[in-house]
């Protein structure tokens, strides 16, 4: 049977809260892929599914998991492999201070998470980190392309720039307070607008703001013709997508790293944002977007 038809026909299991008591996990020689509850994770999971199935593996998926649930499922053996973000693992799971160098963050996880029975591999250039964004037209008009440019403009034109953020980013040391300290400027409390992160892109597009907090791989950046300001002082911690796999599963199946490496090699934030765009904005099927991308890149063979 065609792998895409079989996939769309119901091979994905959607879970909301808990994995406990799931009889479909962990039997036979199948590989269970876990994913969180947003488009980018679905795409990464499904591309992994197609690649492993193309190589002859029996593959199962569980999706729509919270970060902590997915992490527990990996540690408990209910999930075998997933894509995770280096910054999330360092700050949330391991309670470590942020590491700003991507390679150092990755190598730290490879060393530290071994003690938790996990192996990190296949780091990509998909960096779903925080970003400050502007409408392209206004950024060009004001000649702001980087965070240093923004800082200088705010200092030269106090009160002109309205900054949009959610409450979490506004109060995190690795968010707005640290950003302003690093770049030596201050928006001023009267120029900061607080709202849900999901509303910021549209508010910026509607010119209710001049600058907003965003996420680097969010498809709405392209949809609203916005730009990411260059973090030229490397303030934001990296959130590179990489594969984490149970150590025992990796030792039994070391070839999985080689199978997934070509995918990791070609993915970056821009490409990931374009894939997210096809799903979130154009409303295409996640499975079809993932499958077509792999075919176009020659990472799997098309079944006829």
TrEMBL record:
GO molecular function, one term: transmembrane transporter activity
Protein name: Glycine/betaine ABC transporter substrate-binding protein
Entry's Gene Ontology cellular component terms: ATP-binding cassette (ABC) transporter complex
Pfam families given in the database record: OpuAC
Lineage, opening ranks: Bacteria, Bacillati, Bacillota, Bacilli, Bacillales
Organism: Alkalicoccobacillus plakortidis
ABC-type glycine betaine transport system substrate-binding domain: residues covered: 30-295
């Amino acid at each position: 049977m065609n792998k895409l038809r079989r996939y769309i026909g119901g091979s994905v299991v959607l879970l909301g809260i808990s994995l406990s008591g799931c009889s479909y996990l962990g039997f036979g020689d199948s590989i269970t892929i876990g994913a969180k509850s947003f488009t980018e994770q679905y795409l990464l999971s499904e591309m992994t599914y197609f690649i492993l199935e193309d190589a002859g593996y029996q593959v199962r998926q569980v999706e729509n998991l919270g970060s902590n649930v997915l992490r527990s499922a990996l540690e408990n053996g209910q999930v075998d492999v997933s894509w995770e973000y280096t910054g999330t693992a360092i700050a949330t799971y391991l309670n470590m201070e942020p590491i700003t160098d991507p390679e150092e963050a990755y190598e730290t996880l490879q060393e530290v998470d071994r003690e938790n029975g996990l192996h990190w591999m296949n780091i990509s250039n998909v960096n779903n980190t925080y970003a400050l964004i502007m409408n392209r037209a206004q950024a060009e008009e004001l000649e702001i392309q980087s965070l240093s440019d923004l800082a200088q403009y705010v200092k030269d034109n106090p009160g002109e720039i309205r900054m949009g953020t959610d409450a979490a980013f506004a109060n995190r040391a690795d968010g707005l307070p640290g950003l302003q300290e690093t770049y030596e400027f201050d928006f001023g409390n009267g120029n900061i607008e607080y709202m849900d992160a999901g509303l910021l892109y549209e508010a910026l597009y509607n010119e209710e703001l001049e600058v907003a907090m965003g996420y680097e791989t969010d498809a709405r950046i392209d949809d609203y013709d916005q730009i990411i300001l260059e973090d030229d002082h490397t303030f934001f911690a990296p959130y590179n997508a990489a594969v984490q796999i149970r150590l025992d599963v990796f030792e039994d199946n070391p070839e999985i790293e080689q199978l997934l490496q070509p995918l990791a090699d070609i993915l970056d934030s821009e490409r990931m944002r374009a894939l997210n765009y096809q799903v979130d904005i154009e409303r295409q099927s996640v499975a079809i977007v993932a499958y077509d991308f792999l075919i176009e890149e020659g990472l799997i063979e098309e079944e006829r």
